[in-house]
Fold:
Amino acid sequence: MPDSTFLEPLTALGRPPAAATAEALSLRDQVREACQAWLTKSPSPATRENYQRDLRQFKVFAGIPDSEPEHLVRVRPAQVSAWRDELAHRGLTASSIRRKLTVLRSLYSYLQTYGYSGTNPAHGDFVAVPPVPRDGKTVGLSPEDCRRLLDAPPESTPVGIRDRALLGILAYTGCRVGELARLKVGCYKTTGGHKILDIQGKGGKCRRVPLHPDAFERLETWLERAGIRDDLTGALFRPTNTPRGNGHDGFADRPISRRAVQFLMKRYVAELGLDSAVSVHSLRVTALTTAREQGCDIIDLQDFAGHSDPRTTLTYIRSRDRLSKSPAYLLRY
Structure:
């Protein structure tokens, strides 16, 4: 690839030192402004935070100080490839590496739209991304184990009632843990005879998901027990006021954290003796896999999951039937 597709160091272009310094400062301001505009393009604070973290990691690897963002326009594909290899050497999964490279590619694509005339050094024509298996690594649950998990929280304590509702929403809507934590009481509605949740997904996109009777019955019980039905702008799921009160002393007026949801999931998984790799995300995988096995169309599943691309949805579908029909079970020696 010719070097002329990238901006050369300004001092090498034959300009007087003073002019070169002024132009460098101008370029610095432009790149800084463009990077900020790229970050704020997304309405999601979580997305902006993740993008900023991935970019910062690449800049550290490439030796680009935060105070000198103009060096981003001098990055070559070889540097991006080296970063990919370094991430793999550190043990990051293929999907994580793909995501980070996608973030970098998105930045340079935005810079080109902003007026940068160079080539995108993270483009797939220059840097190959690692392949991701069709089946992701997140462990799915069988319908039987999912039912055991849903019924694990006790109905005798307020926190158990909350957890039964919380797990029910995860299992019956397939929502992400971050989406669950953002839910407000007012997101739970009745329309056209259906109980529904308005779920705010990635990028600020909102989708409307009807609730299975088991899910909304659990939710109704929780709202009644917590006494928060009329607090429409308050969090739907909340932490307890004290760590060991089991909710008998009430719930805090703030959203439950993602970490708290992950912790309680891990605790119930351990109590049931399920695979220790089962996580909150396993309920999303289980919901999509089970619906697909029951004949749900992939486009409907895509909408249900809030994915922009059906190929992403397919990575969530675990091949339980295909595994059970494997030739391995027919072998006799």
Notes: The chain has 13 helices and three strands.
